[in-house]
Amino acid sequence: MRKLTALITALLAAAAGAVVATPASAAPAVCALHCDTRDPSLARQEAFPVPEVNLNGRRLVLHVSDADRMAWGSIDNGVPGDSVWLDRSWTDGSTWDGLLGRASIPTTWTGTRTLMYNVADPAAHRRGMVRACGDAGGVTCTAWAYVKVCDAVCDGADPATAVGDSQPVPGTTISNRRIDLHLDNRGLAWATLGSGTAGDEVWLDRSWDEGASWPGGSSLGRVSVPAGATSVRTTMVNTRDPRSLLYGGAVRACGRATGGASGSCTAWARPAADRPAAAADALAHAYRTDTAWWPSSWWNSAVAVTALGDWSARTGRTDYRWLIDRTFELNKGVLPAGQKSTDAIEGNFISRAIDDTGWWALAWVQAYDVTRDAKFLNMAVTIANYMHSYWDGACGGGIWWNRERTYKNAVTIGLYIRLTAALHNRLPGDTLWLGRATAGWNWFAASGMINSSGLVNDGITGGCANNGQTVWTYNQGLAIGGAVELWRATGNAALLASARQLADAAMNSTVLTRSGILTESCDPANSCDDNQKQFKGIFMRYLMDLADASGVAAYRTYAQRQADAIWQSDRDSLHRIGQRWAGGTPNARDWRTQASGLGALLAATAGPTDPPTPPPAEAAWAPNVSYAAGTVVTYAGARWQCRQPHQSQVGWEPPNVAALWSRL
């Protein structure tokens, strides 16, 4: 296939009298939001990112749908036999996958178009560029689209416009020259070289796969020390590419001394606006856009979705709402056993594991809260009805852990209480779910699962007594969360008092808190399994809820201690968070521990009961104005709040710069 592609390209180039590089060999189809070869009639948008080309009187056009992250090419005013195709490059345009979707104008027609192809491959962490090419008595292509990465600003911005300046990793030296990596708080990076001489060079490398490779990202902004100077800096580049659904990119600074062939680079680093944003980007980096989950844990993916929903709710940012929606849409149907869970998923996120199903219900409650889309709340109701069907009179009540009715435990009843109370609080006029939530809490409180130390053991025996099994942080957290949500529903102060007792017991317990740091029983031996890796973040989610509800400063202080420990002892330069928040070696690290750490970082952020920071005076939106975070402006009759400092540009407006503004 490679030889055939090369031969066709060479023949076309010869016919045109042009010199054209050889495209890469044919590659497998790429799947992102959709798979390659989608019909353009299904495109949700149509834009023209580069000028069309006149090819011997024919119109050669590149079309893009940013909503679909796909492109297609067309040729018009032609004759039968004229052809059009796409090239897609994963590098800097020096190599590419060529002849994608090649189509020829059929008899009696004057134009045709290709099918759609993905511009990027986020599942494989590859950023792409595309162009349309045609053959009509000669071969010509449009310019490459999306050569630059654009987020808050586009690649190439002057570091003088940076918002903040931090150096996340130690600098490096070569022949006494100093090379440093700088980051601003919008995810932009630049490099500097100091103590140099004329001709010394400095540049950036950018990687979308955490430093494993950097095709198309080598020698970015490469610049030399000018005559008479001893230092120089590059322009800035982005590390997030929302158009390509690529988040959590990594950068490093590199340099070379004049006269030398070798160079030196800093370690890779991942920029971020703040602590929670750093953890959120690293968590999103592990998400599989094509299959819409985090492989390969089913219920854990629900908790990861919830964590990103919490991040959106806490910060007002909308970056990952597409991810929440995609997870819902691609997983709401029937999935066979072994595809995403050892159990079959029977539709509506339902399986034989009642607790797994409950985690998805809470995820969709949170999705409803941040989007107000009724489909999420309706799904939560469907799941809650399924869970309720496993309430019976064994041991006086409670929800079974599985369809086989083998165990009643803390996690399942905790999920049920939180869910049913949440539904009552979101469904006007409800009495049904309030009654179920109240019955659930009363049964749990009387079940004996809360031991004499105020800690929640795992479940009850067949004889309906506390089984004395492990006190897990997530069981403690769910009990807190259930009590808080039911307090919101009823106003019963005793429920908030119970939540505080459970939280205080955890914070003061040597079982769950060691040297001030929340600790799972499996942490010291680094033996936590894939489920246990996520437990502590769940506890912190509901401690955050209690801090918001009660206004008790001690809970935010405890959360801040966890966040500080994570940031100082349990995080690498790519903001990847491990299982053991106090640090130590070995320390398991994956997307589950990342979601858990995000929960802790969020719990330390200001809540609705914390003293607010007054925004600057409200003004009308305008271009070429510097806006401070928190600024409220009006535009077209709507009010918008600035999320991060920036200078507006001509052609921008709040609705189309969602990374910077939130509608109030």
From TrEMBL:
It holds the Pfam family CBM_5_12. Residues 1-26 form the signal peptide. GO terms for cellular component: extracellular region. CDD domains: ChiA1_BD. SUPFAM superfamilies: Carbohydrate binding domain (SSF51055), Six-hairpin glycosidases (SSF48208). Residues 618-664 form the Chitin-binding type-3 domain. One of its GO terms (molecular function) is carbohydrate binding. InterPro entries: 6-hairpin_glycosidase_sf, CBM5/12, CBM_sf_5/12, Glyco_hydro_76, MUG_Protein. Keywords: Hydrolase, Signal. One of its GO terms (biological process) is carbohydrate metabolic process. Gene3D superfamilies: 1.50.10.20, Carbohydrate-binding module superfamily 5/12. PANTHER family: MEIOTICALLY UP-REGULATED GENE 191 PROTEIN (PTHR47791). This is Chitin-binding type-3 domain-containing protein.
